[in-house]
Structure formats: structure tokens, C-alpha cells
Specification:
Helices cover about 35% and strands about 5% of the residues. It is mainly alpha-helical. The two termini are about 20 Å apart. The model has no long low-confidence stretch (mean pLDDT about 90).
Length: about 80
């Protein structure tokens, strides 16, 4: 499903799992959990090489990710998770 098709039960105004961390910070554990996005070339290579997927997202996370994807001509494909 696309971002505009998501039906939100509640709207949160905080970033949940679309955080970024600069170089020389301890990001690998959080990235393996799917709780942060890559911010540098080394982080992106690690993200892709380990086959990491982003964990649970809220409305602010989807807006951030859609903004990044739209810059390069892509759109996100989302699905609901179990409660």
C-alpha cells in the first residue's frame, strides 16, 4: 500500500524509527534492529550488506521516508503490522 492509502488510528508528532546518527556514533545495533536510517556512505553500505529493514513506523516516519524517496523518484510500499 502507498503512503496516502494508510489509515492512521492516531497521529503522533515525533520521529519513532526514522532517526539518523552521524559518523563515529554507535549506530550498528540500532540499525540492525531497524530503528535508524543510514546517514553516511559507510552506514548505507552496512545497511544494504546486512539486508536490514526498517521496523515499525508512525506518521512522521512515513513523511520523512517518503520525502527521501520522492527526491530520487521512488515511492514507498508499506504494510500494516500486527498489534
Amino acid at each position: 500500500m502507498r503512503a496516502n492509502e494508510i489509515q492512521w488510528n492516531r497521529l503522533d508528532n515525533f520521529v519513532f524509527n526514522a532517526n539518523t546518527y552521524g559518523h563515529r556514533q554507535h549506530y550498528k545495533y540500532l540499525m540492525r534492529l531497524g530503528r535508524c536510517l543510514p546517514n553516511t556512505k559507510a552506514q548505507a553500505e552496512y545497511f544494504i550488506s546486512k539486508g536490514i529493514h526498517i521496523d515499525v513506523l508512525n506518521n512522521m516516519d512515513v513523511e520523512i521516508i517518503e520525502g527521501i524517496l520522492n527526491e530520487v523518484g521512488f515511492t514507498g510500499d508499506y504494510r500494516y503490522t500486527k498489534k
